[in-house]
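Predict the 3D structure for this chain.
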Amino acid sequence: MMIDLHTHTLFSDGELLPSELVRRAEVIGYRALAITDHADTSNLDWIVPRLIQVCQDLNPHGKIRAIPGIELTHLPPALIVPLTSRARALGAKVVLVHGETVVEPVPPGTNHQAIQAGVDILAHPGLISEEDVNLAREKGVFLEITSRQGHCLTNGHVARLAQKAGTPLILNTDTHLPEDLITREKALKVALGAGLGSNDFERMLENSWQILSRRG
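Done. Predicted structure below.
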C-alpha cells in the first residue's frame, strides 16, 4: 500500500491540478497522498486554504486520502520556525522544509532550523551532518529518502547516518510531473538503492502513516 507525503501541483511548480494528481496516484495503488506545494511568505496564506478545500472536496469520492500540506522552500533559516507555526495554524496537516539538497543553492543552516522547528519531514536533506541527524531523532523529525532525480544523489548518505543514529526515515517521490509517481515495486528499488533493506522499506511506509496519525 503506497503513501506519499511530498508532492506538488500547479499551485507551485507541479504540472497537474490537485484532482488529477490524486486520481493518477489512486489508479496506480496509492492510498494516501499529501499535496505539499512550495511556499514562502508570499503565498503560504493563499495555498494552504485552497489545498484544505480541494482535499475536503475529493476525499468523499475515492479510495485515496488526500492530505493538505506545505513545503517551506528556500527560506532564510531565521524564518523557518515562525512560518512552520504559521503553516500549522492555517491547517496544514503535513509540514515539510526543502532541505539542503546538493543540486540547489539552499541556504546553509536550513536543515538545522527545520529540525529545531519540529517540522514533520526534512525533505532531501543532502549531505546532512551527523549532529543534525541526531537532533532529528530527538525532535521526532523524519528524514526523507527520495525518488526525485538529483535530490536522490545523497540518499545513501542520509540512510547510513539515520540508521546509525536511529533516526526515522520516510520515502517520498517529490512528484512534479505525472511520471514522477511510482509504484510500490519502484519505491522498494529506491530503498534498496539507498542501502536499505525490505524491512526498512516497510518501516518507512509505517512511518508515513505515523505522521498522519499524529497530525489527525
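Residues 2-215 form a domain with the TIM Barrel fold (CATH 3.20.20.140).
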